[in-house]
Amino acid sequence: MSAASCLLNEDQFLCSICLDVFTDPVTIPCGHNFCKNCITEHWNSNALCRCPNCSKVFSTRPELLVNTFISEMAAQFRASAQQEASSSSSEQQAATPLDVPCDICTGTKLKALKSCLVCLESYCDTHLEPHLTKAGLKRHELIDPVENLEGRICPKHDKPLELFCQTDQMCVCMLCTISDHKTHAVVPLKEEYKVKKAKLGKTEAEVQQMIKKRKLKIQEMRRSVELSNEGADRETADGVQVFTALKESVERSQAELINTVKQKQRETEKRAKGFIKELEQEISELEKRSIEVKQLSQSEDHHHLLQNFQYIKAALPTTDWTEISVRPPSYEGTVVKAVNQLEEKLSEQMKKLLAEAKLKKFQRYAVDVTLDPDTAHDSLILSYDGKKVHCGELTKNLPNYRERFDKCPNVLSEQSFSSGRLYYEVQVKGKTAWDLGVATESINRKGNITLRPQNGSWAIILRNDDEYYACAGPSVRLSLKSRPEKMGVFVDYEEGLVSFYDVDTSALIYSFTGCSFTEELYSLFGPCTNDGGKNSSPLIISTSPSPKSALSLVAVPSGSLQPLTGTPFKTPSNFLFSPLSLSSN
């Protein structure tokens, strides 16, 4: 019997009326088999006793005889089918604590494949089949398995939460729209899902941009630490050179200098590390948030996405790092302070070594400066390369540009700067009068001009061959030990410092301190009048280090010196130039 049953298939044990495995199978006179209840109800509902299979009509209702053979075979088939179903269920994956379990399974709960929003139950593969095959259940809405399906039912109306109230930002049911949310803007859950999912995409982009900015800020801060270390190394080397020349008498000052520099270095590095650590923590949090955003944006669960959307937005870091930076400390004056603490026995050699080291340090900030012919008084003659200027005997009829000086024989540089430090040198040899300094862009260029800080200029001048003045408003008469032939000009924009040096002796001539710069600054040059040939020598801007090497010394993060800006060098036709002026110089 068992071997024979293996040759039979499911169709041989199905009733042709109910299309299910025989239950109490009976045989009618024509030889066809049916479930007892099926054939009885069929004949009860029809006037004729007709066979559903062959349509043979019986004049009287036949006696229904139990088909023992078919009954036994159907029982065995049903038992075999149940055994296979049980075996199939055992092969399915059992639900873990992280999975949604099947609500129908008894005993071991299998992993649910889908959840039904109508039945409010989750089903494994076996128990899901009716929802896939039966017409009435096919209309139910299936979603990926989720827990707490009751939370998707309106607690007030016991209806599915299939709508979204944009006014109150919450999920509602159909009955809510005619009661509590009657006048509110309500859209289908799927429609709002699409809107929020699009916003999550933008949020993800914002998170990635925030991560990028913070990584760039870390790079900037690390570069600041590097520059701080480089500055500390240079300052330490200069200090060691000075104090070594004075041997044991300056050892205490040397130690103090190094300690001061190292302290600034450590403070800068400590501050940067603190910011970097905070940034790295924010990046870590943002990366976690990015994963959450990606996971949420990939979810097909409308309710889950909308419920968690506000949490994702609210949990983002709010620190604005745009204005936060670590600026390398200024080591300017460290050596000077140390020297001032030395005992009276320090010799003139000490002062000379100090001055040379200081000027050498300033020369690291050397920049290339050229003259702007559009600002030059019409009596001035500029060289082709924009490096020389002197006053001619005659004035020329030139366009009276707004930028041009029309009374005082002055000219400004093409380049301007509004941050950081710069240094340049000007040869003044052979002149009996000159003006040198820096000026703001708004300095008055028309009529007679008085040079002083209140008028937007910081300059020193030479008059009558040996009278030097600092135009401090009022002017300060300067007493110099020797006649400078080359002047060095150093400017620190943030520190508000403008210093003038005798390059040959490394001596400081004068410093404007405590200046408050709010505009772009330009270099100011005034060769003064020719004075009948007595003052015909030109002011000559010395050749500076190549722009690349100069900028490599000063190009530091935001807030520090930037490459000089200005209009491109003018073409020869724009210059006040003649071959005679070159030959005479």
Structural class: alpha+beta
CATH architectural group of the largest domain = Sandwich
Distance between the termini: 128 Å
The percent range for helix content is: 25-40%
Main sheet strand line-up: 12-13-24-15-20-21-22
Number of strands: 25
Summed up, the helix count is 12
Largest sheet: 7 strands, antiparallel
Supply the CATH class of the largest domain. Mainly Beta
Morphology call: elongated
CA-based gyration radius: 47 Å
Low-confidence spans: 1-7, 545-585
- CATH T-level topology of the largest domain: Jelly Rolls
- CATH homologous superfamily descriptor of the largest domain: SPRY domain
Features:
585 residues, alpha+beta, Herpes Virus-1, Jelly Rolls, 12 helices, 17% strand, disordered C terminus
What would you say this structure looks like, in words?
By secondary structure, this protein is of the alpha+beta class. It has three domains: 86 residues, Zinc/RING finger domain, C3HC4 (zinc finger) (Herpes Virus-1); 145 residues; 220 residues, Jelly Rolls (Sandwich). The chain is built from twelve helices and 25 strands. A seven-stranded antiparallel beta sheet has the order 12-13-24-15-20-21-22, covered by helices on one side. A seven-stranded antiparallel beta sheet has the order 19-18-17-16-23-14-25, with no helix packed on it. A three-stranded antiparallel beta sheet has the order 2-1-5. A hairpin with a 4-residue loop joins β21 and β22. The protein starts with a helix and ends with a helix. The N terminus and C terminus are likely disordered.
